[in-house]
User: Fold this.
Amino acid sequence: MADDLGYSVDLKYSIIYKIVDIKTSQIVFEKKFIVPTKKIGKFGAAESFANTASELILAGYELFITEPKVKMIIESNMNTDNNMIPHGKK
Assistant:
């Protein structure tokens, strides 16, 4: 989302992560993570935008990987046949 009335742009990012049991096709985890808004200058360099976009994506992953239920699922499947696979979509 952007506004045309100022010198900066608000970048917003959210992602829905799902973890699916591949044997049963059951969704065992699904949650939308909303990353805090970042501001960038409208007239900045392209690499500034790329860096900010990378920061937003990494922040979304950090929210996912530190979620207590996700940690529990990962830890409980570390010594099994890895039935669960993560799926992310924007």
Q: What stands out?
A: Strands lie at 8-21, 27-41, 84-89. The longest helix spans residues 46-65. Residues 8-89 form one domain. The CA atoms of residues 77 and 83 lie 7 Å apart.
